[in-house]
# Entry
Amino acid sequence: MSERCAVIVGESVAGVTAARELRALGHRGTITLVGADPYGSYYRPPLSKAVLEDSAADDTLGYRLDDLDLTGVRSGAVSADVDRRTIVTGDGDTLSYDALIIATGAEARRIAKPGQQGELVLRTFDDARILRSRLDTATSVIVVGAGFLGMEVVSACVARAIPVTVIDVEPPLRTILGSYLSGVISARAERHGVRVVRTTDFVTLSGDPVSGVALPDGAVLTADLVVTCAGEVPNTSWLAGTGLADRNGIGIDNACRTTVADVYAAGDVTYRRADNRRAPFWSNAVAQGKVAAASALGLQPTGAPDDNYFWTEILTTAIKVVGPLPLSGAPTRVDGDVADGSALLTWHHDTGQATVVAYGVRKPIARLRALAASPFK
# Structure
């Protein structure tokens, strides 16, 4: 398809990676990149870290695209016709494609009632700027959700010395990192004055505009700010009637193919059909963007559509993980002092694979990958 038309819907890291990979693999035809974010393509991991801390980070996020010879469309897709191989944008324009790569990502899951105002989320550059501004004057914060994003927002509050409560049905990060690391992180949070509240069921937001959180037992906690960090919802509404998406997103195989010919998908909008699994991590979006580009060109992908690596920073401690998740039980090996926030931990799985976690330890990613791939008995 080196001379044919490729349309990429979504300016996410998966979409930008796919565009760059198309050129790297020799595609000489047109590339059209469709996106609706007013800020265009930008790097999202710093939104919950550097951007919340310092406005100087605002100008460091943009992806360079001027070397790719592509056409940018500043209007999101609103519908698709997979029989005619066209999409329609919000401006009413119709775009034709020979190959379509969908990388529309996801939007923040909201828990406010219909019409209830004032819910804060963190998914876009605008979200981060609004939250940063509100944190400048807040004297108390409640974070709903103790996953990675929630704990990064908690960390931003602690850095500003703002009293913060985090609410979830599970202890911090236990669903992904397991009970051992969750216990370590929970203890660290408590040492920093974070109030951790576990609930027996889902919570609701109280007030209009939102001013607190109602717990299942009827108790209401209030704060200046309430931030919802309750996961994400794949951006697929524009695909109604195409058969491409369901409530879990767009199903893909190992080549990032969808169930429709010449339509591929990558990033947070996807799930793996083989196991019905979503893995909305930045590293997976990059890996899938590359695979989708190769498949769109009719080439055999040279890499896998997933990458078992991610990183976060919780309460000034960097956490880098390489290997399968979720984790279970205690690590097989511990090098260093976990309580001190400086340890290298290894989990050996029954599958013969290993997961290595650098907890507050500076280790190059290549070194962590090598350790995770090392044979063990």
